[in-house]
């Protein structure tokens, strides 16, 4: 059965670190490259981190029904998953990994039903989240307060996810995430020949 795994989290919870670890460890996982209308940041390349479109191009794709889901995550910036991306990855027999916002995560879970496993990454607390956002040094104090307010809203949705990982210690979070992935993939029986 074709499968998807969805990761959602408030920003600063450490979601990307966990997702990248899993993608490196398991070659049957493949990252779903989202489309966005925001501008590339730093070294980002089209077709690697995102498929970059103008807002007009993005809106034309919405009108054409090309998206599985999309959201205006930040004012003026669309993000969405193209149907062609899902087909591309499933054609290889890979399990799709989504890194999408909390609303998108809940939508994708209800779209894919039994084929989807959704995982919410929780920051250990809002204090820790504030420290991480300050430490990252990429946001102004006002932007940090905005992100924290959004984080509080997003955390309220954690019960809608199949699994919640509290990202206190990274090694523990890796182990919890690996156990979930391995159970989805039927890992131990398929890859080592032993039955559970
Ligand atoms: P960033 O601009 O920092 O790369 O991403 C901003 C937010 O957009 C993150 O929370 C990310 O998970 C979310 N996001 C990325 N791709 C998608 C998508 O295809 N759909 C939705 N709903 N959110 C997305």
Q: Could you give the distance between the termini?
A: 20 Å
Helicity range:
40-55%
Protein structure class: alpha/beta
Radius of gyration: 17 Å
List the quaternary state of the chains.
single chain
Stretches where pLDDT is under 50 for at least 5 consecutive residues are 189-196
- Order of SSEs, N→C? EHEEEHEEHEHEHHEHH
Proportion of beta-strand residues: 15-25%
Overall mean pLDDT stands at: 92
Summarize the structure.
By secondary structure, the chain is α/β, with parallel strands linked by helices.
Description:
This protein is of the alpha/beta class. The chain has a five-stranded parallel β-sheet, sandwiched between helices. Strands 4-3-6-5 form a four-stranded mixed β-sheet. The longest helix has 16 residues. The two termini are about 20 Å apart. The C terminus is likely disordered. The site of guanosine-5'-monophosphate has 11 residues, from β5 and β6.
Comma- or semicolon-separated keywords:
binds guanosine-5'-monophosphate; alpha/beta; 9 strands; 196 residues; 45% helix; 5-stranded parallel beta sheet
Present the secondary structure layout.
Blueprint: E1 4-8, H1 15-25, E2 29-31, E3 34-36, E4 50-52, H2 55-63, E5 67-74, E6 77-82, H3 83-91, E7 95-99, H4 102-112, E8 116-122, H5 126-136, H6 141-155, E9 163-166, H7 170-185, H8 187-192
Parallel strand pairs: 1-7, 1-8, 2-7, 3-4, 8-9
Antiparallel strand pairs: 3-6, 5-6
Helix pairs in contact: 5-6
Guanosine-5'-monophosphate is lined by residues 34, 38, 71, 73, 79-81, 99-101, 104.
């Amino acid at each position: 059965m074709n499968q998807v795994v969805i990761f959602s989290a408030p920003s600063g919870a450490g979601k990307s670190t966990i997702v990248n670890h899993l993608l490196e460890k398991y070659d049957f996982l493949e990252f779903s490259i989202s489309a966005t209308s925001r501008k590339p940041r730093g070294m980002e390349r089209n077709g690697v981190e995102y498929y970059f479109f103008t807002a007009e191009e993005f809106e034309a794709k919405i009108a054409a029904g090309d998206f599985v889901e999309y959201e205006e995550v930040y004012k003026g910036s669309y993000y969405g998953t193209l149907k062609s991306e899902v087909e591309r990855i499933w054609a290889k027999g890979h399990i799709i990994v989504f890194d999408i916002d909390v609303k998108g995560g809940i939508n994708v879970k209800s779209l894919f039903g039994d084929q989807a496993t959704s995982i919410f990454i929780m920051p250990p607390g809002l204090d820790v989240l504030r420290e991480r956002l300050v430490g990252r040094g990429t946001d102004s104090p006002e932007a940090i307060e905005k992100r924290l307010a959004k984080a509080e809203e997003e955390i309220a949705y954690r019960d809608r996810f199949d699994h919640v990982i509290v990202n206190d210690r990274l090694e523990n979070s890796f182990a919890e995430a690996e156990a979930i992935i391995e159970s989805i993939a039927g890992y131990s029986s398929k890859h080592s020949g032993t039955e559970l």
